């Protein structure tokens, strides 16, 4: 029988103390720093019947359950990781992070 031996990996534990400009994750990311991830910004949600959904057309509006000045949520793989305010970055939307979850 072939035996597979796996050496343990020791990870450095770092206590996170939030502060202005601190990174979201304080770790040595030399092995993972090049990996791209997809972040989603959630503005709000809406609930409607399937009939109403199928009747939506160009120019129709869908009201969300969030106020205009409410913070939006930053998600990584469906998990909320931060909140912030929408802002303009040139001709694009941006997010100013105000809270790390």
Automatic annotation (TrEMBL):
Keyword field: Cell membrane, Chemotaxis, Flagellar rotation, Membrane
TM spans (from-to): none
Gene3D superfamilies cross-referenced by the UniProt entry: SpoA-like
Principal location class: membrane
Protein origin, superkingdom: Bacteria
Pfam families xref list: FliMN_C
InterPro entries: FliN-like_C, FliN/MopA/SpaO, FliN_T3SS_HrcQb, SpoA-like_sf
Residues covered by the Flagellar motor switch protein FliN-like C-terminal domain: 32-101
Mode of membrane association: Peripheral membrane protein
Compartments, record wording: Cell membrane
Similarity comment: Belongs to the FliN/MopA/SpaO family.
Protein name: Flagellar motor switch protein FliN
Species of the source: Dyella acidisoli
């Amino acid at each position: 029988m072939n035996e597979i031996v796996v050496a343990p990996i020791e990870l450095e534990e770092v206590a996170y103390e939030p502060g202005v400009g601190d990174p979201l994750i304080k770790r040595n990311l030399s092995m993972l720093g090049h990996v791209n991830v997809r972040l989603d910004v959630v503005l709000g949600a809406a609930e409607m019947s399937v009939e109403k959904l199928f009747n939506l057309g160009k120019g129709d509006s869908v009201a969300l359950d969030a106020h205009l000045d409410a913070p939006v949520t930053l998600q990584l793989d469906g998990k909320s990781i931060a909140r912030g305010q929408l802002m303009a970055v040139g001709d694009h939307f941006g997010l100013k992070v105000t809270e790390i979850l």
